[in-house]
Each structure stands twice: as C-alpha cells, then as structure tokens.
Amino acid sequence: MSSKDRNQKEEETEMEKSKAHIIVEIIEYVPNAVLSRTIIRKTTGNITVSSFDTGEELAEKSSAFDTYIQIIDGSAEIVIDGTKHKLELGQGIIIPAHARNSFCAKEQFKMISTVIKSGYE
C-alpha cells in the first residue's frame, strides 16, 4: 500500500476507542501539505485533527453546520466572511453555518475541527 493510500485510509478510519492519546502527536507535519485524520465520524457530526505546513492554505468554502476550530499547535489565520482572525495555541472559534471561510498557515499549525450536525435548526 502506498503512503498516499495509507494516509487516505487513516483519514477515513476513526481512532481506536477507549485508548488514551496525545492529540498533538496523532498527526505530523509534512512539507508542502495539509493532512487530516479522523478522530470520530458519525452521521450526527465528526471530529478531525489537521496539520498545515507553512504557506499552505485551504480554499474558501462553507458548511451547512456550525464548526468549532481549536488550535493545538502553532497559530493560524482563519478568514470568516471576509474578516481575518489570528488564532494562537489554545484558542478556538466557531465558524457559523453557511459562513464563507478559509485557512492560511503563516507558520505550521495543527487544529481540531468539530462539527455537530444533530439538532441544527
């Protein structure tokens, strides 16, 4: 299995339950890349951890659900509906449902993204 196939499989597979882990260590930095790993994925929502190498970006998008972002390493620039937010280690922000948003790595950073789909009005 190639490393690309392995990374794809890791992204789609939930982490092992009832096993402690150090969240910042479950994903590495890879030069010129953005990596994501699924912590838990359900029809009612998901939690994902991502790493961004310096200079990497995620293009503008939107989601039908509120998304909570927490920075677990480094700092990130997040643009929500045209407003820039710089988040430092330990800080979090809620991206409102349907808001246009993008991410830019002025330096390496890791984040946890939490989407809760149930109960959305």
Quickly describe the structure:
The protein is mainly β and 121 residues long.
Record keyword descriptors for this entry:
121 residues; Jelly Rolls; five-stranded antiparallel sheet; 1 helix
Please, could you describe this protein's structure?
This protein has 121 residues and is mostly beta strands. It has one domain (3-116): Jelly Rolls, CATH 2.60.120.10. Helices cover 8% and strands 46% of the residues. The protein has a five-stranded antiparallel β-sheet. β1 and β2 form a beta hairpin. The longest helix is centred in the N-terminal third of the chain and has 10 residues, at 3-12. It is globular, with a radius of gyration of 14 Å. It starts with a helix and ends in a 5-residue tail after the last strand. Mean pLDDT is 89; it is low at 1-10.
Mean pLDDT: 89
| Unreliable sequence segments | 1-10
Strand order in the largest sheet? 1-2-9-4-7
End-to-end C-alpha gap: 43 Å
CATH superfamily: Jelly Rolls
List the helices and strands and how they pair.
Elements: H1 3-12, E1 34-42, E2 45-52, E3 57-61, E4 67-74, E5 76-80, E6 83-87, E7 92-95, E8 101-104, E9 109-116
Antiparallel strand pairs: 1-2, 2-9, 3-8, 4-7, 4-9, 5-6, 5-8
